[in-house]
Amino acid sequence: MVDDEENILSSLKRLLRRDGYRILTASGGEAGLEILAANAVDVIISDQRMPNMTGVEFLRRVKTLYPDTVRLVLSGYTEFQSITDAINEGAIYKFLTKPWDDEQLRASILEAFRIKALADENRRLSDELLLANQQLRVVLDEKQRQLQRDEVVLGIGQEILQLVPLPIIGLDDDDMVVFANAEADRLFGQGAPLIGSFAQAVLPPALLDIIGGAVGEHRWAQGGLDWPVNYQRIGFNAATQGRVLVLGPAARP
């Protein structure tokens, strides 16, 4: 509370002490600023007419330095224009007149503390939301970096498989070709891409029998050549599963 009349400060302290507030008093604006610099304050009540600095001038400075405080003017002088301007600027929350009604004054101060508590809670929630968004951004950025690394690894792996001089074919559970290297395209697609075709349309019956049977090592004879065939299921730890055929070097029986 800021007022240049000591008897006013004493009366206010007697009135408000029963409400459990920690009350700090100052006899002018400069003294009030010194108190604010050394103490955390929620609600400020200031007289309007004081030497050296009016209440409106004081509370304008308080708004700049301590914008989270709730500021009230309690005055017997009705300088409506300056007070109205200060209220419109947000420097003052409410104007109260002297002499005051005890219960009305207590209710206004209680309301000011409720507004302060609500504003503090809103700031806390905003800070938590900001922190959560920052943490989410960190996670998303790391996921993006991981995806980029996975794409690089996948691209390198596919390029390596394309260079393997043995036919390799990957099938999904619907028997669609989802991977075929260049050697598989040459052998079964006459150079055309096999990806997107169904196994029944591009693979010979003997290989269809293999993919319809047990996994493991098999043999496939074609055109006077004997091919070792390794048939396996893949994707046990993935959302989708499939099968892979790897044909070894052909030899004459």
UniProtKB/TrEMBL annotation:
GO biological process assignments: phosphorelay signal transduction system
Chain ranges of the Response regulatory domain: 1-113
Entry keywords, A to Z: Phosphoprotein
SUPFAM superfamilies: CheY-like
Highest taxon of the lineage: Bacteria
Modified residues (4-aspartylphosphate): 47
Protein name, as recorded: Response regulatory domain-containing protein
Organism: Dechloromonas denitrificans
Lineage of source species: Bacteria, Pseudomonadati, Pseudomonadota, Betaproteobacteria, Rhodocyclales
